[in-house]
């Protein structure tokens, strides 16, 4: 008795190979889906963390303690400096980020103009000529006076001849307040 073995036709071989290929592709797609979902979930977690961190940089409540919208607009002297008549009794005034000197640049195109007008009205403790340098911008806070809804403080280093260590003053150009001479300085004559 002969067993006759029938060889598969080429079309059957092609069909079998297609099935194998499709099965392998499905396995790969399933593996890739898991990998893609893992990558997407990591990116979502990173995005959420970044949103949280960026949102926490700017507080929704201001920590500034000496803002006064009713403070008068400072007057200018002949030398184009602010006329300052009062000395601050508060040792934190200007020296602490929560008690900055609120300059408020009020409609000028040069944001530093009023800072210079204020600083040029000051002198060292014994009337010495001071020099100043803006060294940093820091300390974001919410403000209705800017398009982005936040303001920043400028830190100035103040020096005069004979001084042992320079002092740092925090100036705020976004809010108003009464302008006074900080403790340890004097009003220029």
TrEMBL record:
Keywords: Membrane, Transmembrane, Transmembrane helix. The chain crosses the membrane at residues 35-53. This is 2-dehydro-3-deoxyphosphooctonate aldolase. The lineage of its organism: Bacteria, Pseudomonadati, Bacteroidota, Flavobacteriia, Flavobacteriales.
